[in-house]
Amino acid sequence: MALLQYDFKNQEIADIVNAIIVYAASNKASDIHFDPCSTGLKVRFRIDGLLQDHTIVPALYQRNLTTRIKLISGMNITETRLPQDGAIKGTINGLSLDMRVSCLVTNMGEKIVIRILDYSKSSDGLDSLGFSKRNLPKIKRMTEVPNGIILVTGATGSGKSTTTYTMLKALNNEETNIITVEDPVEMNIEGINQVQVNAEIGLTFAQVLRSILRQDPNVILIGEIRDSETAQIAVRASITGHLVFSTIHTNNSLSTIERLLDMDIERYLLSSALTGIVSQKLARKICPHCRYQRETTTYEKEIFRRTLGKDVNVIWDAAKGGCQYCRNGYSGRIAIQEVLLINDEIRDAINKNMQKEELKRVVYTKDVATMLQDGMEKVLEGITSFEEIYKIVEINDELDNICYNEEQQFEQTHAQEPVPETPTDPTTPPSPETTQPVSDETEMLTFW
Ligand SMILES: [Zn+2]
């Protein structure tokens, strides 16, 4: 993106701030960074997970611009040494926006980051989140159970809040009392009671949770399980007839179970409480307008064979440089997911404090596609690229998890249909001449 020039001499600083915010929001940026540098303030947008330069605010106007943002986000404008948090909520140029603002003083001056909260992602329902045909029914089944714990896991920025909120919204109706305890409340949802944690006055997750249980809830969302105390209350709430949602910072189902086991929770309670685990990461989607097909490398062939058991010779890839509809061949993001429904065997394993290797065997059965498998399926469908999956998934760790899976699938395949000696390749993506650039299905799996 070429750097944009604003007319600082003739335009009001308030208008320029608005223009930057509107530009960022309409380009689907998740964050706006105002970085102090030697020439002034460098403005950058994070789009599809990557930062890109937008403009430079000359040093002469830096102070004014910083003050303006602090003012509209409700910060103390005379405080220039301590970090501050603020928020901007309102309509700018017809766009309804909700933003969180953070100000941190660096050695170069005040650095501001505006996070733009986008509600539209979770308003399109579960079907729009990119769950595979195998995973979507599992998600629906999880939310139909009236009690238990559903955990959504992933790193910061993996889209786990969107997934959690979407699941919650699917349950939001007049007969259901939904209460959340969050830090911070990321999105206001009509019809749901949301409580903000406030550590400064001693209002912790654990304390709010105790009160929530006296509020006759059906469904409880705990923003994040950070400690054993919260985990214990979550477990107790779920076994006393509540459906509990929460998030946790782990990579996949296996590490989530291990993390929970490390917390001080009674195993028999945890084993009966846990309903399901959804782990996810976000991958950039390749642009359907300029994507192209190429032959797979030896390494890619091997990964396809080990993850999906298929010989894949041709895949879609992102075009370097991209086109008018994208940035460097990519546009938007899709979730790469692993969905685990807890079954009796896993409950038994948790109860018996099984060691990691054994636990792995009961978790990764043929019913569970690991994130790597889900990702490779999405590469095969031409939605994302191998490079993206390589970047976001720990391929070696995940391959290790698939081993058990592969053996079982292998046996099953043999039992049903012997593999021909010279297999034809049914998995090659259709040629560009015979397909529309955007299939309905690809279009549906968007919104990140
Ligand atoms: Zn393109």
- The rough form would be described as globular
Helix content: 25-40%
Walk across the major sheet and give the strand order: 9-8-10-11-7-12-15
Q: What is the percentage of strand-forming residues?
A: 25-35%
Radius of gyration: 24 Å
Could you give a short account of the major beta sheet?
Answer: 7 strands, mixed
Uncertain regions spanning at least 5 consecutive residues: 410-448
* Nearest-integer average pLDDT: 86
End-to-end separation = 20 Å
Strand tally: 15
Ligands present: zinc ion
Total helices: the number is 15
Structural class: alpha/beta
Run of helices and strands: HEEEHEEEHEHEEHEHEHHEEHEEHHHHHH
Report what the structure shows:
- The chain contains 15 helices and 15 strands.
- It has 448 residues and is α/β, with parallel strands linked by helices.
- The strands form 3 sheets. Strands 9-8-10-11-7-12-15 form a 7-stranded mixed beta sheet, with helices on both faces. It has a 6-stranded antiparallel beta sheet with strand order 3-2-1-6-5-4. Strands 13-14 form a two-stranded antiparallel sheet.
- Helix 6 crosses helix 8 and helix 9 crosses helix 12.
- The protein is globular and about 70 Å long.
- The two termini are 20 Å apart.
- 40% of the residues are buried.
- Bound molecules: zinc ion.
